[in-house]
Automatic annotation (TrEMBL):
Swiss-Prot/TrEMBL keywords: Membrane, Transmembrane, Transmembrane helix
Name recorded for this polypeptide: Histidinol dehydrogenase
Transmembrane segments: 39-60, 72-93, 98-119, 131-150
Residue segments, region Disordered: 1-29, 158-177
Length: 177
């Protein structure tokens, strides 16, 4: 008889308590995200910023006159509202600031380029007496800085289980027994 033993069959490993089961993806991990998808989303974010900056530069001078009393800068209001919606929306729906940063970079970059006089001498962002041009020049930058610097809001927990309370906030047991 020989003392050689057959190797034991590997035991089925149970997942650790802090890791999800292999057949269930973690809640924080993106599902199906590849390098191509990431690069495409970066390019789309940058292009969205460029498009919003170009459209805002073209429409920011539009006004509506109310019976000759005053002019409402409807183009500037809509352009600034669109910038806020774009950047805040990207920050809210995406886990990272990167795509919002790239959109802000495209937005501020194209506004800066379109502010310069063209070779023919035409100016898309004039320094008018109402300050609409100055407002459009600096508002996207200020909005981008505020939106990107704003701290991340706490996410709601998706499962029905309550989050564990840190030990410093735990309520001590009562001596009512």
């Amino acid at each position: 008889m020989s003392d050689v033993h057959a190797p034991a069959a590997p035991a089925a490993r149970e997942p650790a308590a802090d890791q999800p089961a292999p057949d269930q993806p973690a809640a924080d991990q993106p599902v199906g995200e590849s390098v191509v998808v990431r690069i495409a989303s970066w390019v789309i974010g940058l292009l969205l910023g460029v498009v919003f900056g170009m459209l805002g530069t073209v429409v920011h001078q539009s006004t509506i006159s109310f019976f000759g009393l005053f002019d409402l800068p409807i183009g500037l209001i809509l352009a600034i509202a669109a910038v806020i919606c774009l950047l805040v929306g990207l920050r809210l729906i995406l886990p990272s600031r990167l795509i919002a940063f790239l959109a802000a970079l495209g937005l501020v970059g194209i506004v800066a380029v379109l502010t310069l006089p063209s070779p023919g001498g035409s100016i898309l962002v004039p320094a008018d007496e109402h300050g609409y041009g100055y407002t459009w020049t600096f508002a996207p930058t200020v909005i981008a800085l505020v939106v990107l610097a704003w701290p991340r809001l706490a996410r709601r927990q998706r499962s029905g289980h309550p989050e564990p309370v840190p030990s410093s906030q735990a309520v001590p047991p009562s001596d009512a027994a």
